[in-house]
Each structure stands twice: as C-alpha cells, then as structure tokens.
Design goal:
Elements: H1 3-49, H2 56-76, H3 81-93, H4 105-142, H5 157-167
Length: 168
C-alpha cells in the first residue's frame, strides 16, 4: 500500500469523524432555522388574519418571539449561506435526526404554540376566509391597495394547489 493511499484514507477518516462530530450542531441549526421560518410565516398570518380577528395576534406573538430568539441564536453561532447549504446537503443525504438527539429548547417551545394557533385556524378558517375576503372587497371598493402580503394559508385551496403545482 502506498503512503499516498494511506494518507488519503486517513484524510477521509478524519473528515468522516469531523462530520460525525458536527451532526448535533447541524440538526440544532436546522431546528433554529425552522423556528425562524415558522415565525416568519406566522408574521404574515398575524398581519392578515389579525386585521379581521383580534384573537389571532395573541396566538401569533409568542411564536414570533421564539422565532426572534432563534434568529439571535443563529447570529451568535455565525450562520451564513455556505453553512446553510452544507447543512441542507447533509440533511438531504441523512434525513433522520440521530438517535438520542435532544430537541433544541426553542423548538420544544415553539411546537405547542404553533399547535394552538393551527388548531384555532382550523376551527375558524371558513369564517376567517370570509372576513378576509370582505376586507379585500372593501379595500378594493375604496380604491385602497391590497396588502403587501397575502398569506398562502388564507388563499383558496385551488390557488394554493395551483401555486404548488407550478413550483414542483
């Protein structure tokens, strides 16, 4: 066996050990990013749904706070585009969290908050859709611009399905 072959195997083994050591950090960053993404979507729900239902903002605000804390955590660890792409590539090849991996405390905190909001939205979606449509029609009749956002969750199912079909 040549010394260059042994050196190559040693480097591969060292790289594999480094990746194995990074796995908890990868999954932690992915959870924090998921919290941020969820909070951003909830921000849209709060903006649009909160215009017609005063029960929505108090359900959304705690989720948005957790999302901000997750964003601060990511900033503290120096999250950046190359790291995000590297983590996503790893997770695409290894889609299951390692056995015994503990959820990040912010991920644990955001889940029940999201479930509470989702439950409320599911129970009230028909009413909310009608109220949001009324608000849109009133804006249109008054010559006001449509809001900058139109959260996908309040769009008719056919529109959501069509948008999803185009993106795949």
């Amino acid at each position: 066996m040549s010394s260059s072959h042994c050196l190559g195997e040693t480097q591969e083994r060292a790289e594999a050990q480094q990746v194995a050591a990074d796995v908890p950090a990868i999954w932690t960053r992915m959870q924090l990013r998921a919290c941020v993404a969820l909070a951003d979507g909830v921000r849209e729900i709060r903006g649009e749904g909160g215009e017609v239902d005063d029960k929505i903002p108090p359900l959304c605000t705690p989720i948005m706070r957790v999302g901000r804390r997750a964003l601060l955590n990511l900033a503290q660890i120096g999250d950046h585009a190359e790291l995000i792409l590297s983590d996503e590539a790893y997770v695409a090849q290894h889609p299951h969290q390692p056995e015994g991996f503990k959820q990040h405390p912010l991920a644990e905190e955001i889940v029940p908050l999201w479930q509470e909001l989702q439950s409320y939205l599911n129970r009230n979606m028909d009413w909310l859709d009608a109220k949001i449509d009324e608000r849109f029609a009133a804006r249109q009749a008054a010559g006001e611009p449509d809001p900058i956002y139109r959260s996908w969750i309040f769009q008719p199912m056919e529109v959501r399905a069509a948008r999803y079909a185009k993106s795949t």
